[in-house]
Amino acid sequence: MQGKKQYLDKEVVRFRLSERVPPHNLYRRLAELVDWSFLYDETRGLYSHTGQPSLDPVVFFKLVLVGRLENLISDRRLVEHCALRLDILLFLGYEVDEELPWHSTVSRTRQLFPAAVFERLFDHVFAQCVARGLVAGDTQAVDSAPVKANAALEAVLEKQAAGPAGPHLSGREETPAAGSVVTAPAHQLRQLATGQRRRQGAQTGALGARHEQARLLSNKTHYSPTDPDARISVKPGKARALNYLCSLAVDTAKGVISHAQADLADKRDSLHLPRLLTGLQRRLRANDLPLRALLADAGYANGPNYALLEAAHITAWIPVFGQYKPEIEGFVYDRRTDAFTCPKGQALPFQKYDTNQDGGWHKIYWGPCRTCQQCPRKPTCAPRAKRKQINRTIYDAAYRRAWERQHTRRGQRKRRVRQGTVEPVFGNLLHHYGLRRVNVRGHAGAHKTRLLTAIAFNLKKLLKHRPNRHVSLAVALPRPVLAANRRARRRNRRLEAPTRARAQPLTGKGTP
């Protein structure tokens, strides 16, 4: 007989939410895994003792973590999604007939809580990962990736020249907006203008017909009024956009995120390493974990970074940047005398320290001018200068040691370890944890988003962890008894040996 289900939409009198969610459910296990009560003490000073009750801080953090776990960026969609899930309602502590908070309440609460509260929750979850044996701490892999900001590139404005603000029509002085004043050095602006003219001159069509000039944008001359902290950046293979930079440190033991931070996207990765290292060492020391090795790509190659890691007794497995040359062809360096020797045998000793336009320190070596003027190799060695001059960075020794490490078999193995540790973590965060775009504005909001994403990732690691339990059965006999038995048997053999020899008959050819 064919069945047909009838839906009556009746009112259920007896219903308990905890009975509808199985014990193995992710959110039910997550509620039992973490002790959330410490968040009340962390946020108590942010509220007044009078007024209407606010959104429960524990509910807020659970709600935004659900957004990361469910790969939801919008707060509106997050609230709508949670209202349809019984397990999430049980995780949040809401009944089926109870209204969830408004999305605007979630947004205002996120702005109210400082980043220190988010970092405290991250430290709490990281400590649980350490207690479960998921973190070794001695080797960390570092990497960064751009994340799209909540601003449009088409709405950027041109920065104004720095100078005193002129009088306004109302008699008040104008206050420039954040990031709306040019702060780049003059030589960088000249280089930028030269490059723009060269690119615009190359934009020609068929038979030399010029098309409409493309709009050339730079962080030195343009800013976003919507989000002044967002920076214009481009990733190979991607379009130019307003981004933030997400920097991560991942433990190589089980892939647990040990540090997360948001950085400005207009600087090289190497300039963000000191701040990342400070936060990473603080967290590892708090859990009694020593840091001995740091793995990173060539984007973190920097003389100050090599010196900083060596001073902290940390082995830097960072490939040297491609422009660095450990040796100059034809010139031999003597470390004892700190001098170079040219192919003709002339010494080029160290003369002085100097800085470039960007403030980088380097050492200068040169020899006597009269010697170079009489040298037959001068047209090829120093064609435009009076003498041969060699500039080397003051961190040349640290560069050389890093270059030697990367060309060893262990260096190649460390490179593969980094690629198999931190890069898959970034892929998961971008595609499954809502890190493809920042749904807030400002550097502080982007940093909170990075922390929430890292917390959700580590919580998933905790839920998936299954400790290995080895069951073995062994029977152990007392060693002194066995040793005594062996000694007794040996003594009996020695006593019985002469008796056996006397009892044995003699045999031979002459014996009947």
UniProtKB/TrEMBL annotation:
Domain Transposase DDE residues, every copy: 341-463
Lineage, broadest ranks: Bacteria, Pseudomonadati, Bacteroidota, Cytophagia, Cytophagales
Domain Transposase InsH N-terminal: 16-111
InterPro entries according to UniProt: IS1182_transpos (IPR047629), Tnp_DDE_dom (IPR025668), Transposase_InsH_N (IPR008490)
Stretches the record annotates as Disordered: 163-183, 192-211, 485-512
Source organism: Hymenobacter sedentarius
Top-rank taxon: Bacteria
Name of the protein: Transposase
Pfam (any one): DDE_Tnp_1_6
